[in-house]
Amino acid sequence: MTKLLSSDDIAEAAAILTGGGLVAFPTETVYGLGANALDNFAVARIYEAKERPSFNPLIVHVHDIEAAERIGEFSAVARDLAQAFWPGPLSIVVPVAAQAGLSELVTAGLDTVAIRVPASDLAQSLLQAADVPIAAPSANPSGQISPTMAAHVMDGLSGRVDAVLDGGPCSVGLESTIIGTDPTRLLRPGGVPTEAVEACLGRRLPAASSDDGIVAPGQLSSHYAPNATLRLNADEVADDEFLIGFGAVDTPLNLSQAADLTEAAANLFAMLRTADANSQRIAVSPVPRHGLGLAINDRLERAAAPRD
Length: 308
Ligand code: TXA
Ligand code: MG
Prior knowledge:
The protein has 308 residues and is α/β, with parallel strands linked by helices. It is built from 10 helices and 14 strands. It has helices at residues 10-18, 40-50, 65-71, 76-85, 104-107, 121-130, 150-157, 194-201, 261-278, 292-304; strands at 3-5, 23-26, 31-36, 59-61, 90-95, 112-116, 134-135, 163-165, 177-181, 184-188, 229-231, 242-245, 253-254, 281-284. The strands form 2 sheets. Strands 1-8-2-3-7-4-6-5-9-10 form a 10-stranded mixed beta sheet, sandwiched between helices. It has a 4-stranded parallel beta sheet with strand order 11-14-12-13, covered by helices on one side. The longest helix is centred in the C-terminal third of the chain and has 18 residues, at 261-278. The two termini are 32 Å apart. 47% of the residues are buried. Threonylcarbamoyladenylate is lined by residues 27, 29-30, 32, 56-59, 91, 93, 107, 110, 112-114, 116, 136-138, 175-176, 178, 187, 215, 217-218.
């Protein structure tokens, strides 16, 4: 049985986590499927619930920079990024600290860890109440669309997790931006626009490539996949297609009529789900490739990639 909890039940949610259970909880990006990152058995249950390939390491959530410095070694660059963007939708990959005590399953055998301090009030309250680092991938079965509402989590994981903490819709709606810090590279575009990270660093932020010797995160090409096929950059729509619009397009599902990328990011995953439930073929209007548009296009391209 999966319990649906509310903001009044933070203590109960925290007790489930410290007792080795699984709690899905809201962050400003997407809902995460949380487990105590120090407890190998609890972390194993995440992989089991999501049916996730175990080579994919997990992001560890903590409530502030001090807690982050207990599990990771922060270089000057990592600290600058943390100070500029935490709490918020940024994950920073740093070497694991000697005394971190993290489950090996969290890092999937790497000597680095991705750390994030989420901004959402409920996530903050839960992390403080649990007072242990919480490993949390997005709270969806592996390969499916990330959840931005408690009902999405229930659709995918009901019966497979102990509780879902309902905090309403996620305000950002796209997963965190992930930055590797040795060397400094963009591992995944996300909720913090790349341009904002570059402004903080005072230089360009290259995307990770295979010669960097760092693992570009489990970026399986087909990810975030709806059941329907997806056609991108659609300027017109066929009779048998369901159009997800952007800007001044006449369609029942529009990411943002006002062509606002922040609004479009917040709507993206919920609209993909709605379109998927209504049609076998989805078309999506062009979305500009700057700011959050880079992350939106990244997710759309993965959703449109051929499935294996
Ligand atoms: O917004 C988010 O980031 C959400 C919320 C719940 O925090 N979490 C999320 O987690 O999207 P997940 O597991 O779906 O994606 C985590 C990504 C994976 O692609 C993984 O490979 C990468 O982070 N990652 C984790 N640890 C890493 C490491 N040490 N080095 C490189 N990439 C890492
Ligand atoms: Mg995910």
